[in-house]
Amino acid sequence: MDRRATDGLGSLDGAAGGFTQGHGVDRPPRLARAGAPDGHDPGDPVDADAAERHTRIRAQPGCRRVKLIGSEASPYVRFVRVALAELGMTYTFETTAPFAKLTAEQHERINQANPLMKVPVLETGDGTLFDSRVIVDWLLSRPGYADAEFARGFRENFDRINALTTAYGILESGVLRFLIRMRHPDTDMDSGYMGRSRERIDSGLSWLEATPVLGPSFGPPEALVCCALAWLERRSVHDVSAYSRLNRLAADYGQRPSLATTRIPEDA
């Protein structure tokens, strides 16, 4: 489905759904300041300048025609969507089915857009980008984005960059385990490299649980951690219940519009 979106970035694990096209309303995102007297939820974005930035950015060459291609169930695609929402950028979202359910038309669309044959893909006025981390980095580097609360200080903070890298490593190991379990159910998931992948997930989660750089503000590391925890739980890939601080972080930030409106669909 191709629609105009203001809700906030893929693995081969995607969402079930069609591949039809339609058009909606191009509109700026809902904005509110946390704790505002109008009763908006404290989880709402707190960047009061986002509306002005939204108008200014849309006038820039590379931001006029932005289309995201991807699955609603992919944590990587969701990460890009969250970033887009937090930055206040209007875009078109062209959804694809899960990898196992892709039609020939969908395969061709993705393969033409990305030589690695996977989502997310971001088509912009400047060209096409693939890989969620590259896409988000491009978004954060656009003129007018660096002063957004979501982006502020992230690219200069090595500890927060490492937190994002750790979340990516957890997801990569999780996606590997999910695909191997799904396609090769007789595989011993606790020996050899598969055992190493489980250890890597636990090691990464333990590091994120302890690091003080995660949580005080909502930026790329927090967004990807929330997406990763939700995906690991939804796909029953790894038990994350022991990581109480990470689960509190996900619960606290989970009601932000960027996350609340990009949850994995029930039928995915």
Automatic annotation (TrEMBL):
Signal peptide: none annotated. Residues 64-147 form the GST N-terminal domain. PROSITE patterns: GST_NTER. GO terms for molecular function: transferase activity. The keyword Transferase applies. InterPro entries: Glutathione_S-Trfase_N, Thioredoxin-like_sf. Residues 1-48 are annotated as: Disordered. Gene3D superfamilies: 1.20.1050.10, Glutaredoxin (3.40.30.10). Keywords: Transferase. This is Glutathione S-transferase family protein. It comes from Marinihelvus fidelis.
